[in-house]
Design goal:
Mean pLDDT: 90
Largest sheet: 6 strands, mixed
Order of helices and strands: HEEEHEHEHEEEHHEEHEEEE
Number of strands: 14
Strand order of the largest sheet: 1-2-3-9-12-13
Strand content: 25-35%
Distance between the termini: 28 Å
Radius of gyration: 19 Å
Length: 242
């Protein structure tokens, strides 16, 4: 997860957490952010939850690779326009595929649409398939966001598996090994594990077992944050600590 995405999810987390620490939020490296109120520093590490993917040669991975080439090129073309940052989501059709020679044309069309001026008082625009005029691209969603850099993604629709306690524990185990280093910069330490409903590789259903499980970790607080892309955002789940 790059810094721009970390900042985006932290801001969404902050808005949905009733008791987010007071103070100035600043970027850091280990942990990712510090919140300083002049008396205490709270360190916050942001990480993503990702489901295991198939082999590199699978049809799913091949489709994902060509989509990512289109997305990466479109983002470069968009950034070259020098416009304000936007969060762009491209919903490709299930059977989308293109030749390497077609990547530039598709990417340019997407970048031009994403750069379209927004009407007054509107912070999101959506183009459906017939409006993009691009074959097998179902929808383009563009949002105005306050971020240092634009973010582009291409979620792939799949079945939604459950997230199991051991998957969460694995992340906690990896991150806990770095806690000693993190604590050199702060007085209190939080971990935010992000799941994104619009990212197929990240989204999973949080089972009751996962909610009620007691986890082992070295953070003062660890949260599972499912970002819904909705005004009805649920608060983050505080993971129970053994």
């Amino acid at each position: 997860m790059n810094k721009a995405a970390e900042q985006f999810y932290l801001e969404k987390f902050k808005k949905s957490h009733r008791h987010f620490p007071q103070g100035e939020v600043s970027e850091h490296e280990s942990p990712d952010f510090l919140v300083d109120d002049g008396k205490k520093k709270v360190g916050i590490e942001v990480t993503g939850f990702y489901r295991e993917s198939g082999s590199e040669s699978s049809p799913l991975q091949k489709r994902k690779k060509i989509r990512q080439k289109v997305i990466d090129r479109a983002q470069i073309l968009f950034n070259s326009k020098g416009l304000a940052s936007r969060w762009v989501t491209v919903h490709f059709g299930l059977y989308f595929h293109c030749k390497k020679s077609e990547v530039e044309h598709i990417a340019k069309k997407l970048a031009d649409l994403a750069a379209s001026p927004f009407p007054t008082e509107v912070d999101q625009m959506i183009w459906n398939n017939d409006e993009t005029t691009l074959k097998d691209i179902d929808c383009l969603v563009v949002r105005n966001v306050e971020m240092p850099e634009s973010h582009w993604s291409a979620p792939m629709g799949t079945f939604v598996p459950n997230i199991e306690p051991q998957q969460i524990q694995q992340i906690l185990d990896i991150k806990s090994k770095l806690c000693e280093k993190y604590r050199k910069s702060c007085d209190e330490l939080w971990l935010i594990i992000v799941m994104d409903r619009f990212e197929a590789s990240s989204f999973a259903s949080i089972t009751q077992e996962s909610r009620l499980h007691y986890y082992s970790h070295l953070f003062d607080s660890a949260y599972l944050f499912l970002y819904e892309h909705s005004v009805n955002q649920d608060p983050p789940l505080l993971l129970l600590k053994s």
